[in-house]
Design goal:
This protein is an alpha+beta fold. 22% of the residues lie in helices and 29% in strands. The radius of gyration is 18 Å and the shape is globular.
Length: 271
């Protein structure tokens, strides 16, 4: 039986005689099981009907996004540094074209992932490019395919390259992580945020939720702690989980303003 991939969230499960009867990620209240029930695909079937599109977001930062949309629909971001390329977050589809393009750019030095919804096929990306996967140890229980290339890290901060730092914010998941890129935005700094800090449809705002599909909020105390953790870091831009969702100017102010409004609404400060 080939590798099985959940069609709803993109999480890959180990080879087995039959497809799994359930997806642990989707059964959690931060995700969902479709009304029609759990469905599965394989890497070969996924590649036969989907392709990855690329976009240059700024110098040294590429977006990789699967079309038609698959699973949750997030993008991966490829960050070029003087110490090698870093893949931020992961998508399920790793096709021959994507492999060739990444090898043409110099391969991958490492993969870093924000939270379990984007683990997808990280093991296969890591094996293909012979690189480690950095994810926070607080979320390690959500790994459904163990692999020696996965390197859980602990604590609050991990510098993975010069000027590239992982920050544990928690919130959406206990190990929820963002990546701070000091050289982003022409040296003014950028945050690659996944949906730990979710860039809103109004791209001058961000938001924070326990469950996005089920619209369950985080507490005021948690959101304050996230803001306090980000406060010392300088950043102009925020690149969120989905195509088109990026704050291109005044990113730190957008976080500060959004936190103030979010907490105010929780405390009943409405127009």
């Amino acid at each position: 039986m080939p590798l099985q991939i959940c069609s709803t969230c993109g999480t890959s499960y180990p080879d087995a005689p039959a497809a799994p009867s359930r997806c642990l990620i989707c059964e959690d209240e931060r995700q969902f099981v479709p009304r029609g029930g759990q469905a599965w695909t394989t890497p070969e079937k996924l590649a036969s009907g989907h392709v990855n599109a690329w976009r240059l977001l700024e110098t040294d930062l590429f977006e990789i996004h699967t079309h038609p949309q698959f699973g949750i629909g997030q993008r991966a971001l490829l960050l070029r540094t003087s110490e090698g390329n870093i893949l931020w977050d992961c998508i399920a589809l790793l096709d021959a074209a994507t492999e060739a393009l990444i090898r043409g750019l110099g391969g991958l030095r490492m993969i870093a992932i924000s939270h379990p919804h984007y683990y997808t096929c990280m093991q296969d990306w890591a094996r293909t490019f012979d690189c480690p996967v950095h994810l926070h140890a607080a979320d390690a229980d959500w790994i459904v395919r163990s692999d020696p290339m996965i390197r859980p890290w602990d604590g609050e901060i991990l510098e993975i390259a010069h000027g590239v730092t992982l920050l544990r914010l928690g919130g959406h998941f206990p190990g929820g992580t963002v990546l701070h890129w000091a050289d982003g935005a022409d040296g003014r700094g950028a945050i690659l945020s996944g949906d730990v800090v979710q860039v809103a449809a109004d791209v001058s705002r961000v938001s924070f939720l326990w469950s996005y599909p089920n619209m369950m909020p985080l507490s005021a105390a948690t959101v304050r702690r996230i803001a306090d953790t980000l406060a010392p870091w300088r950043f102009e831009r925020i690149y969120g989980a989905f195509p088109g969702r990026q704050v291109m100017a005044n990113g730190a102010h957008a976080v500060e303003r959004s936190v103030t409004r979010y907490i105010g609404l929780l405390e009943g400060n409405q127009p």
